[in-house]
Structure formats: C-alpha cells, structure tokens
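thoughts on these tokens:
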Amino acid sequence: MKNTRFIFPKTLFLFLPVLMIFSCIKNDNFIKGDAKIRYFHTAVTDTTQNFFLRGIQSGASTTYGSNSNYVVVAGDSSYTITSRNINTGVDVASITQKFDIGANYSIFYTHTTPASPAVLKVYQDDVKQDLNVVTLNFLNLGYTLGSNVIIKDDNGAFTQFVAKYGEKTTHKVTLSKATHISFALQTPIATQPLVKTLDSAVATDASDKSLAISKGLVYYVLLDGSKKGELQMRLVSSN
C-alpha cells in the first residue's frame, strides 16, 4: 500500500514533458512564438524572383502571377527581406519588417510605376474565419494601369468604391444568389479584355467569365495590370 501512494506523482512526472510540448501548440497550427509569411510576385515586367530573410533564401522561386505557401518564422523579430532575380546574387528590392507572434503576412514584389525600381510591400493578413460571410481583401498593385479601379457589387453588400494603387480594402460579404462583384478601370482603355467577376455560384458554361467565392473563407482579390496596362484580377485564398 505504501508504494501505491507514489504511482500518480511518478506517472505525472513521466507525462510532464509531453504536456509541456502540447501546451506550446495552438489550434491554428502556430507553434508559440512563431509568425507565418508568404511571397507574391506581382511585377509583370520582371523575371522570376528568389526571396531572402537575413541573406538566407526563404521559400521557392516565384514567377509572375504566383505566390509561395506560408513559411514559418520566429515572431517578435525584425528581418531584412530581399529579392533577387533568379540566378543572380544582386538584391533588387529590400525592406525591413517586424513580424508579430501569431500573425500572418504577405510580402509583395512589385513596382510603384513602370519606370521605378522594384519594391517590397508587406501587408498583415486577416485569416480569422467568419463562417457566416466571405472576407474579401481588395488590393490594387497595378503599377502599369493608367487609372484607378472601380469595384462594385450588384447586390449592394458594400458601397461602390475606387481602389487606388497600394490600397488594401477589406469587406465582409453575406453571400446570396445576387452577389456579383465586378471590376473596371476608372478611365477605360480600348484594348481591355473581360475581367472575371466574383459570384456566389458559377454555372459550368460561365466559368470563363466569373469565379465562385465561398462563405467562411478569406481571400485576397489582387488587382494588377498587363504590360499593355490592361486590368487583371486574381483570387487567392488566405485560409
């Protein structure tokens, strides 16, 4: 009977390291103390980019119109982030950024004008789900565009607004059959092709004209321009 008094303390001691490990893990797949970052290449005039944190390559090579997966980094830390043209050792853009613990960030390689040097822009991502709505983060990085972009929803979920270069605007939209979000240049050009709309559902024969968005998800709606200054839109999920 004397020995039985010590079974529980010994068992607890054996499991204590395991409990400590699990206590450091959050439900959102973050390890305590970390942040997540990802890279976007939104410069239509530039070649494939490699990205570096403190001089060490981070993520895979990224071509125009694509982005990396999230990469885990230590949070509450500042980093010098640089980009280089593939197969070169020369930095073409650089920025210093602090990443907060538990936060997600997107880093965009772009320009401010067609003639200006490349720059890196960092935006903190809202990845928290609201199961009743779709969260849309509209971001205009169209440095080749000759005008701002008009964004409207035929269903009136938000007031029509103008997206200027570098501006990020977030709207939470309650979806319905009438949801129909469209994009147009404030100053139209003759060569502008069709820009897909965002809808709650898309018929099979309309997939070349619209993209379906789903409630409970968070998206980036990226606006940029072709080499001819034509408006383009890309939809990227953040969760």
